[in-house]
Amino acid sequence: MSVRVQREDFDVGAEVRRVAADRTDIGAIVTFTGMVRSENEGRGVAGMTLEHYPGMTESELARVEAEAGKRWPLQASLIVHRIGALNPGDNIVLVVTASAHREAAFAAAEFLMDYLKTSAPFWKKERGGDGAERWVEARQSDDRAAERWTPRE
Amino acid sequence: MPVKIRYFSWVREKTGKAEEVLDLPPDIETVADLMTWLKALGPEYAEAFARSDVVRAAIDQAHVKPTASLAGAREIAFFPPVTGG
Question: Which of these, B36, B7, B33, B31, lies nearest to B20 by C-alpha position?
């Protein structure tokens, strides 16, 4: 179980090998990689900058990861999120979940991404092809995606 | 009560500062009270908190609702809804 916030890129293969190193109890590893697209909501994207709240980011990611560990039998999990200046095609976020069987690994990876998107304090500022900058607005669909994991009262 | 206030994303851009230490009057009891009080500090604050229903808050690095009490808070942060991932 670990979380990292970093400027540098990550190597998905190397991260998966590290998660699985010296383990024989893992039967399934799921990875999700989020990347920068060159288009968003019909607008060209030349690049973006990711701002975050140092300290709170790490504690929110750890909280979300601990919640996933309570809900599913995970052998290991990892969240890596990049900050700073990124270009189209660059990696933004990596989620790795490892379990004995695939169901828990798939579900936990989806849960981690849905919760991370609505609770971890990151903010994206996009730069358009014309150089104009704008803050990306939160999507209601992300709120709905996170809400489906909340037990109904 | 001196408390550190931090601003992120467009709230930071509109206030023109990333953080500051402010002495809050004793009648400022909740996050919503603080937003109303900040709005009156100057036009840049009025602009930053014009959409106060959109601005989110954290106390000591944990998400809170506008009704949350400021009692014992060391650090209060204001920011737009998050857009990571």
Answer: B7
Q: Which helix (H) or strand (E) holds A79?
A: strand A74-82
CB atoms B77 and A81 under 8 Å: no
B21 and chain A in contact, CB less than 8 A: no
Q: Where do the domains of chain B lie, and which CATH numbers do they carry? A: 2-79 (3.10.20.30)
Contact B61 A113 (CB under 8 A): no
The CATH architecture annotation of domain A2-147 reads: Alpha-Beta Complex (3.90)
Q: What is the mean pLDDT of each run of 10 residues along chain A (153 residues)?
A: 96 98 97 96 94 98 97 98 98 98 98 96 96 93 86 56
Q: Which residues of A touch B74 (CB under 8 A)?
A: none
Res A72: pLDDT: 98
Whether ipTM exceeds 0.90: yes
